[in-house]
Amino acid sequence: MMISCDEASNICNKKQYKEASKWQVFKLRFHILYCKTCSKFSSKNTKLTSLCQQANLHTISNEDKEMMKKEFEKQL
User: Residue ranges of the alpha helices (H) in the chain?
Assistant: First the structure.
Protein backbone atom coordinates (compact mmCIF):
# COMPACT_ATOMS: atom_id res chain seq x y z
CA MET A 1 0.00 0.00 0.00
CA MET A 2 2.83 2.42 0.82
CA ILE A 3 4.52 3.90 -2.24
CA SER A 4 7.74 5.86 -2.64
CA CYS A 5 7.86 9.51 -3.58
CA ASP A 6 9.24 8.52 -7.00
CA GLU A 7 6.25 6.28 -7.63
CA ALA A 8 3.92 9.00 -6.34
CA SER A 9 5.35 11.54 -8.79
CA ASN A 10 4.97 9.05 -11.67
CA ILE A 11 1.35 8.40 -10.74
CA CYS A 12 0.75 12.14 -10.34
CA ASN A 13 2.01 12.72 -13.89
CA LYS A 14 -0.14 9.89 -15.22
CA LYS A 15 -3.15 11.28 -13.38
CA GLN A 16 -2.77 14.64 -15.10
CA TYR A 17 -3.15 12.93 -18.48
CA LYS A 18 -5.87 10.54 -17.29
CA GLU A 19 -3.59 7.52 -17.67
CA ALA A 20 -3.59 6.43 -14.01
CA SER A 21 -5.80 3.61 -12.80
CA LYS A 22 -8.24 4.09 -9.94
CA TRP A 23 -6.00 2.01 -7.69
CA GLN A 24 -2.98 4.18 -8.54
CA VAL A 25 -4.96 7.35 -7.81
CA PHE A 26 -6.05 5.87 -4.48
CA LYS A 27 -2.45 5.06 -3.55
CA LEU A 28 -1.38 8.57 -4.59
CA ARG A 29 -4.07 10.20 -2.44
CA PHE A 30 -3.05 8.07 0.53
CA HIS A 31 0.61 8.99 0.01
CA ILE A 32 -0.24 12.69 -0.25
CA LEU A 33 -1.96 12.55 3.15
CA TYR A 34 1.34 12.01 4.92
CA CYS A 35 3.89 13.45 2.46
CA LYS A 36 3.74 17.23 2.24
CA THR A 37 6.43 17.38 -0.45
CA CYS A 38 4.41 15.21 -2.82
CA SER A 39 1.28 17.12 -1.89
CA LYS A 40 2.93 20.36 -3.04
CA PHE A 41 4.25 18.66 -6.19
CA SER A 42 0.79 17.36 -7.04
CA SER A 43 -0.77 20.76 -6.48
CA LYS A 44 1.79 22.53 -8.64
CA ASN A 45 1.56 19.85 -11.33
CA THR A 46 -2.22 20.29 -11.48
CA LYS A 47 -1.83 24.06 -11.72
CA LEU A 48 0.76 23.77 -14.51
CA THR A 49 -1.46 21.43 -16.52
CA SER A 50 -4.38 23.81 -16.11
CA LEU A 51 -2.31 26.77 -17.27
CA CYS A 52 -1.06 24.86 -20.32
CA GLN A 53 -4.63 23.95 -21.25
CA GLN A 54 -5.78 27.55 -20.85
CA ALA A 55 -2.90 28.72 -23.05
CA ASN A 56 -4.01 26.17 -25.67
CA LEU A 57 -0.45 24.88 -26.10
CA HIS A 58 0.13 22.13 -28.64
CA THR A 59 3.16 20.28 -29.90
CA ILE A 60 4.17 20.36 -33.52
CA SER A 61 3.35 17.45 -35.79
CA ASN A 62 5.91 14.81 -36.75
CA GLU A 63 5.84 16.07 -40.34
CA ASP A 64 6.73 19.58 -39.21
CA LYS A 65 9.51 18.19 -37.02
CA GLU A 66 11.01 16.33 -39.96
CA MET A 67 10.78 19.42 -42.16
CA MET A 68 12.50 21.53 -39.51
CA LYS A 69 15.17 18.89 -39.06
CA LYS A 70 15.93 18.91 -42.79
CA GLU A 71 16.11 22.71 -42.80
CA PHE A 72 18.58 22.68 -39.90
CA GLU A 73 20.72 20.08 -41.65
CA LYS A 74 20.81 22.22 -44.81
CA GLN A 75 21.96 25.23 -42.80
CA LEU A 76 24.79 23.26 -41.20
Answer: 5-16, 22-34, 36-54, 62-75
Answer yes or no: are the C-beta atoms of 34 and 21 closer than 8 Å: no
Give me the torsion for CA of 42, 45, 47, 50, rounded to 10°. Answer: -130
Q: Give the contacts of 12 (CB within 8 A, at least 6 positions apart).
A: 28, 38, 41, 42, 45
Tens-digit pLDDT profile for residues 46-70:
999 888 888 887 778 889 999 999 9
Cβ 28 vs Cβ 12: under 8 Å:
yes
